[in-house]
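TODO from last week: model Glucose-6-phosphate isomerase.
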Amino acid sequence: MSDANRCQSMMMEFDGLLLDYSRQRATVETMDKLLNLAKASQLTEKISRMFNGEHINSTENRSVLHVALRAPKDAVIKADGMNVVPEVWNVLDKIKEFSDKIRSGSWVGATGKPLKDVIAIGIGGSFLGPLFVHTALQTDPEALESAKGRQLRFLANIDPVDVARNISGLNPETTLVVVVSKTFTTAETMLNARTLREWITAALGASAVAKHMVAVSTNLALVEKFGIDPNNAFAFWDWVGGRYSVCSAVGVLPLSLQYGFSMVEKFLKGASSIDQHFQSTPFEKNIPVLLGLLSVWNVSFLGYPARAILPYSQALEKFAPHIQQVSMESNGKGVSIDGLPLPFETGEIDFGEPGTNGQHSFYQLIHQGRVIPCDFIGIVKSQQPVYLKGEVVSNHDELMSNFFAQPDALAYGKTPEQLQKENVSENLIPHKTFSGNRPSLSLLLPELTAYNVGQLLAIYEHRVAVQGFVWGINSFDQWGVELGKVLATQVRKQLHSSRTQGTAPEGFNYSTTTLLKRYLETSSEPQM
Ligand code: F6P
């Protein structure tokens, strides 16, 4: 850290963003070697194959083209020989038209009232990205103004408690339900959709569905079968992975309903700016590439299995949960893209909380326990500045004091000698010693507008892709989520037959049988 040349070479600026990775445990030579590793793993070719629409998601035989979702109207991005950008813009134009109608009140509900509240039903990628962006924009002054009088809520969990929380205080007469599901088969989403359909029809009659329920899906046949008018369905495509779908109608529809399409367009532009940077910038200046390589360095070479995502911004409180899915569902794999067992571990355990909340929670472990590479994300200009007369600094400066202090505390630590000089008693010296040399990186955003939120999203999406490309895995499938779903089907069948015919649990191991029996005997769920 005392080598200014080294530090200077580890700072990168792009489109208002400043990345400082000088607190990584890497020398200039390390970076050269990581760039050689990128070359050896054919990173350039793999990125090109992604942008060219090749079927790089080989186990699902699909292209990976979320970059097309935010491409400018005149761009040409092909999947299976066809330019997909016009299709993308057809849907965006349809969203603009529909959201304008809802927001202006020209589209009304079954009883003639404007629809001012929206519940978006969806889970995983059909939930976390839109929730992150919504939470980030909620306090942006421009977004706040455009959302006046409107509410956007998200129903994800099949826990009926989540339904109760979502509908609490809402009136079906003034509520629009958006069912978001790539497959339109996800058990949680479909049961929640049926539950809210019941909520609407019980109050307003069956015909109200046409006015109060719309859908976002790749499976328009199932949307129609569910009873939603296909004219009120917003399509996306199999070349959009669920966790990469926030820039499709999955995010754009609910967010446009809440904030207006022009606000969401800014978000798409921010993401697109990073796409262009990622595609065309030499690796030594390419932010997602550098971040991806450093993550590979931390996981595979230094053996650190986790990564903490620490935004010093309450508006980014849902960023870590979103990146958990983007990163862990993408890179938590056990075999190479060719199906060979990997001789090393991939992916990292992502977690995080906004600073300074995390400081008063799990930072103890990060400072003196395990070594966890940290991403510190700071914002120059607060969305909601506060300055109290007589205080030493503004509230945002107070927050940012922590953003600047924590990386150095981790990097330098505190030695026993320093403690002795401070006359700390001998028995406390081991407890108060900080080993230091703990890696972090700092990303400073000029402000947190829709545009910056788009930038941040795309940086992390591409970083995860870079890691997967270097590790030689398929970051775009998710077979690991299937087994649990199959086993849940067996349990569902058992619960049904136990409730309807009183049959005892059968075909499960001792542990599950005991738990099921206890649940059935003591639960107050209605007998079907
Ligand atoms: O179970 C995991 C998963 O398939 C995710 O990959 C996906 O984002 C989520 O479920 C929701 O799927 P869908 O949008 O099809 O309802």
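Done. The chain has three domains: 4-41+281-475, 67-265, 483-522.
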